[in-house]
């Protein structure tokens, strides 16, 4: 059984990166409990924790610029 891919546009993302993307997707979803900025910062912290500082900062910049398209506003 293949694992679901959570990093938009990157189907071969390493497992640790995919896990960070999964958390970020949950935070961005309608049932997420944090602001968009906090979700993005949590994503960056996850990437740093997984020893991916350069990739983490690049992806963090991308989600800060383009992520608003996917963020579900909380009611």
UniProtKB/TrEMBL annotation:
InterPro entries: PLipase_A2_dom_sf. Keywords: Membrane, Transmembrane, Transmembrane helix. One of its GO terms (biological process) is phospholipid metabolic process. It comes from Caviibacterium pharyngocola. The chain crosses the membrane at residues 54-71. One of its GO terms (molecular function) is phospholipase A2 activity. This is Phospholipase. Coiled coil: none annotated.
């Amino acid at each position: 059984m293949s694992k679901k891919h959570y990093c938009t546009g990157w189907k071969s993302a390493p497992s640790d990166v995919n896990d960070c993307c999964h958390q970020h997707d949950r935070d961005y979803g309608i049932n997420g409990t944090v602001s968009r900025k906090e979700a993005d910062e949590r994503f960056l912290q996850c990437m740093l924790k997984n020893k991916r500082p350069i990739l983490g900062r690049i992806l963090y910049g991308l989600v800060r610029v383009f992520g608003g398209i996917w963020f579900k506003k909380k009611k």
